[in-house]
Amino acid sequence: MHIKYNAPTVLTYAFTSALVLILSQTLLPSLTTSLFMVPGKHQFNPRDIVNWVRIFTHVIGHANWTHLISNFSFILLIGPILEETYGSLSLFFMIAVTAFVTGILNAFLLPTALLGASGVVFMMILLASFTNFRQGEIPLTFILVLTLYLGREIFNSFTSNNISEFAHIVGGFCGSLFGFFRPAKR
To answer: How does the protein's chain sit in the membrane according to the entry (predicted)?
Structure first.
């Protein structure tokens, strides 16, 4: 018996995020804020190329181990199933699009910075409810997940906290669109 690198996109994503956090907490203390955090609308400078890089890389950086573990416990649970269903390259594309959409909307609409993979988590949660989707049908699991997960995020968006419910909602919207318009590989 041997260990298999069974979900290359998900595992590489997880290991890269862990490495960035290790480096941020040891050798390069400003790494996360300088390369892996999207500034809010008042700090985002569209002429600064680093800000455009951050639009994609914010899903790799995390504030601390609790933040990383809470995101990647879902990603490592759901991601391999999605990677097998949709393919490694397709899942990578979905992660990149979700990072872009959550990052760009945050940079131009919200005053706070954005950091972490929670938008990707919600993309995967909603996308997972489509794994047995057939044309002309709306899975009941999708309706329930949409109601429970995104309903909670909409409700929580009216409370004061350090969580980007906006990224959760946008990530869930991305996952819903991917589920409707990107058929699973057979």
So the answer is: Multi-pass membrane protein
The number of distinct structural domains making up the chain is 1
- The phi, psi pair for 101, rounded to 5°, reads -65, -50
CA distance 13 to 3: 18
Looking at the domain assignment, is residue 2 inside a domain? no
- Inside any domain, residue 3: no
3-state SS string for 137-166: CCCHHHHHHHHHHHHHHHHHCCCCCCCCHH
Contact 106, 167 (CB under 8 A): yes
pTM, two decimal places: 0.91
CB 24, CB 32: distance < 8 Å: yes
Q: What tokens were used for 48?
A: 């600064």
pLDDT tens readout for residues 105-135:
999 999 999 999 999 999 999 999 887 777 7
6-53 residue pLDDT tens? 999 999 999 999 999 999 999 999 999 999 999 999 999 999 999 999
